[in-house]
Input
Amino acid sequence: MSQTNIVLLVEDNPDDVDLTVRAFRKNAIHTEVVVARDGQEALDYLFAACADGSRGKAAVPKIVLLDLKLPKMDGIEVLRRLRAQESTRRLPVVVLASSNEQRDIVASYDAGANGFVCKPIVFPDLVKAVEGLGLYWLVLNEPPPLHFGSEAC
Amino acid sequence: MQPEEIVNILLVDQDENRLRELENVLSSLDRNLVKAHSGEEASRALLDHDFAVVVADARMPGMDGFETAARPPVIFAFPADCSETHLARGCSLGAVDYIYTPIVPEILRAKVTVFVELKRQRERLEAEVMRNRFFTLSPGLLSIAGLDGYFRQLNPSWERTLGYTIQELKSKPFREFVHPDDREMALVATRRLAAGEIVHFEIRYLAKDGSHRWLLWNTAPDAEEQLIYAVAHDVTERKQAEAALVAANRELEAFSYSVSHDLRAPLRAIDGFSQALEEDCSERLDEAGRRHLERIRSAARYMGHLIDALLRLSRVARMELRRSVADLSKLARTVARDLEDLDPGRKVEFAIAEGVRAVGDANLLRVVLENLLGNAWKFTARREDARIEFGVETGGGGPVYRVRDNGAGFDMKHAGKLFSLFQRLHEAHEFPGTGIGLATVQRVVRRHGGRVWAESAAGQGTTIRFTLAGEAQTGEQDGLADSPGGEAEVREED
Output
C-alpha cells in the first residue's frame, strides 16, 4: 500500500479535532487526517493498517498525533502498546498534548515518543505548529520502511 | 566527671609540720588534699569544697565552732597519752573516728580509705535514686529490652501511650505489639542491634484500644548484658501532619495539572472558532461584529497568559530546590537579550553588573530575573531614554540584589499590595499584565530563605531588591538607609 500524506489524529475533544483539521487544511501540503476518538480506536486502526496480510483495510499514517488525556486508555498506554508490537514499534508518533508538564514530557519520551508538542491556545500559533509538523513529518522525514525484515532489503 | 576526681580530703592543724606529715602519709592515696591552719580556715574550705573526710588535730583552739559546719565525717588526732574524757569530748564535737599521734601511717590511710569509699558508695546510691526517678517521671518512652525479644523494664509513660499495663507489655515478645506491617522492619533493627549497632527507626506500635502510635526509636545495644537500651518518642501527630501534607500536595498537583489541561482546551476553541467565524462568515459580519470577535479573542489570549503564569507560580512552589553557584550576571544578560529579540523596535539601555553570583537554584533565579527585568522592560515602554540596571549592593548584612528602572514607577502608598497575587497597580490598557509575576518572584525568593521589597515613586522609576538564603540579616537597615521614596517591605513569614 502506498503511504500518501496520511495523519492519524488521536483526539477525543471534537473542538480540537475540528481546529486541528482546519489548521491542516490551511496548509499547502495536501494531507488526509484520519481521526481516532480514543486510545482503543487508535490501536485498532494502527494494528489493522500495519499488520501483515491485512492490506487494504486501512492506510498506514506517516505520522500519528497523539493526545495524552484520552478516554478508556491514555496516550502513554497507547504508545507503550504500539512500541511493544513489532509491526508498529517504529511508527513515528508525536505527542500533541494540552500542556507542557515536565512529567508528561518525560513519560512520553520514556514510552517511545518521537516528539512532544504543546497545543498552542491561539489559533494562528496552532496553524504554525501544524505547518511545522506537516513539513517535517510528511515531507522531510524518511518514514520507516513497512515490514522491514520480512523481505530482503 | 569521674567520682574519683572530686574526692577531697581536708587536713586541719595549726602546725605546718604536722600538716606536711599528714600530707606525706596520705599522698599515696592520690586524692585532692586541702590544708587548713585554723578552725576558721577549715570552715571556709568546707564551704568551698565537698570533702569525703576531715582529719583534724583535736587540741587545736577554735575547733569548738568547727563542728557546726562539719558535715563530712571527722577523724580527730589525739596524743597517745590523752584521757578518755578527751576522746569523749572529741566524739561530742562530731568525730566519728580518731587516731593517736604520733601517727601510724597505715592506720591513718586505712581509716581515710574507708571514708572515701563510703562517700563514693553514697554518691552512687544517690545517682541511682535520681536515675530511677528520671526513669519513672520521664515523659519519653524509656525501656530496656533483652535481645531475646522481651521487654525487661518500661517506664510508666508506656502505660499512658499504649494503654497496656507494664505487666502486659512484659508478658509477650515485643514484636507482638508492633504493627504487622512494621514487624519486618523491627526484626531488621533488632538484628542490627544484636550486631552491635546503634539504630534509629520509626515503626507503629499497637495500642490496647486498637489504634496505633508511631514511635521514633533511638536504641543502643549492650552486647555483654544482651540488652537493648531504648528511648522512643511518640511522633504520631507529626506523622499524621506529614501524611496530611503529602495528601494536600498531591491534591494541589492534581489540581494544577487539571487546570493546565482542562482550562486550556476551551480557550483553544474560543480563539479558534472566533477566527473560523471571522473567516467563514466574513460577508455576514460588519465592522462592529469583527471588533467584538477581536475582543473575544484577546480575552481568550489574556486568559491563556493567566493560566500559564499561574502554572509557573505553582511549579515554582513545588519544584525541588537545587542549589549551586549561579551566575546572575549571565542569566540577566540572557534574559535581556530575549526581551530585545521579542521587541526589536525598542531601544533600552541595559547596565548589567559583571560577576554577580549567588548560591541558589539557577532555573528559579532565572524566573526571578525574567519577571523583574520583564517588568522593568514593560514599565519603561514610554521612555525614550529607557534604562534598566541589574547589580548587587554589598553592605554589612550580605549581598542585596537589585533591579532598577527609570520607568513609570508607582505610588508607594499602594506598595503593600505589590507582591500579592492578582494585584496590579496599573490599568490594563496602560501596562498589560497578569498580577502573578511578582507573587512568583516572592515565592522563589522565600524558598531561598530571602526577602524582596520595592522602592518607587510615581514617574520616577522602580527599584526591586531581594536577598537570598539569609545572606542579609541586616538588609532591612541597609534598605531603609537609602530609600527616599519609602519602602514596601515583605518579610519572611514561613
